[in-house]
Write a sequence for this structure.
């Protein structure tokens, strides 16, 4: 074998080894844009609503309250998203597919047939799914556009009409499919998470006290010392995990590995830093409760932040998988499960990146 032939084989081998890595990174980027679109929007409103639930609109939040709320937020992200979904639920797939109705199919097969209780639970889950689909887009887009009020209070009367127009535009592109949506929104959402991390890190550096929120005792103490108000605040804290069901619902599109890696390396660190940064800002400037997210950033960046917060939002509704999984779960549970169908953009990549 000539030297040129050996060199050619070596190059082909290195390219074939690099292909799975490129596919994995492409799926990871796509999952950031599709799977984590909702939960990445939560910093716009979740921390503010949690603090207001604890203190009301007329009282400044004290340090122990802020640390308690931050602790609840951090541990909600760790326990609900990381442990429940990433570590446990992503392993409960139905032939590579996820979602509530995939769990119905698994439960039906485990029990050896149909069960009224399982079907009833599936119907309740479907109703909750559609309820979330109605509420979350309006809440997220409205919170993003409200940043205009921080730039100039005169924009207040334009917030609702502009939000309606943006919602119409966003839902108009839903029919383009997961592949095109992921290719477009993936890079934009990655920039969004980077910006979240930068804004939070700057303010954490000004007040390292907020790092104490990693101690879960602050959250537990807050709940026990505030009684009924603590429970109301806990309800607001759960806004931070809005859209977490997407991790499991979109399992068939991206695979377990890319979704897990995107959360652990990009989304979780960025969200944690941003929430801690908002807490540090509020400790230094209690008046920032007006809009702690946008006030993290310099005045000259606010318009760009409003555009980025609005433009990167893509509400994910896996309608095709929803309908198909309903048919699978409601049908004969003894027949072989349907093979998962992948978007054209991801054909040949998901199967190699599941674990």
């Amino acid at each position: 074998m000539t030297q040129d032939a050996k060199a050619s084989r070596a190059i082909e081998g290195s390219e074939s080894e690099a292909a799975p890595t490129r596919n994995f990174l492409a799926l990871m980027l796509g999952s950031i844009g599709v799977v984590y679109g909702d939960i990445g929007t939560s910093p716009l409103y979740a921390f503010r609503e949690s603090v207001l639930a604890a203190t009301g609109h007329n009282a400044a939040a004290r340090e122990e309250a802020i640390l308690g709320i931050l602790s609840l937020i951090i541990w909600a992200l760790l326990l609900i998203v990381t442990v429940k979904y990433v570590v446990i639920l992503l392993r409960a797939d139905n032939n590579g597919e996820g979602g509530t109705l995939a769990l119905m199919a698994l439960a039906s097969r485990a029990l050896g047939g149909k069960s009224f209780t399982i079907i009833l639970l599936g119907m309740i889950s479907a109703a909750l799914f559609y309820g979330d689909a109605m509420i979350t887009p309006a809440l997220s887009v409205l919170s993003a556009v409200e940043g205009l009020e921080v730039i100039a209070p005169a924009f207040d009367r334009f917030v609702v009409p502009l939000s309606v127009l943006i919602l119409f535009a966003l839902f108009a592109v839903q029919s383009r499919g997961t592949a095109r949506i992921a290719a477009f929104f993936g890079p934009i959402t990655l920039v969004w998470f980077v910006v979240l991390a930068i804004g939070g890190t700057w303010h954490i550096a000004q007040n390292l006290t907020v790092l104490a929120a990693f101690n879960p005792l602050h959250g537990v103490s807050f709940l026990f010392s505030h009684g009924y108000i603590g429970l109301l605040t806990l309800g607001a804290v759960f806004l931070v995990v809005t859209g977490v069901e997407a991790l499991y619902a979109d399992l068939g599109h991206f695979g377990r590995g890319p979704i897990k890696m995107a959360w652990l390396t990009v989304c979780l660190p960025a969200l944690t830093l941003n929430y801690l940064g908002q807490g540090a800002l509020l400790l230094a400037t209690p008046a920032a409760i007006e809009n702690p997210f946008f006030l993290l950033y310099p005045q000259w960046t606010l318009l760009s932040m409003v555009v980025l917060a609005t433009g990167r939002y893509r509400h994910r509704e896996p309608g095709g998988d929803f309908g198909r999984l309903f048919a699978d779960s409601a049908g004969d549970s003894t027949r072989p499960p349907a093979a998962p169908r992948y978007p054209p953009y991801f054909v040949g990549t998901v199967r190699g990146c599941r674990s």
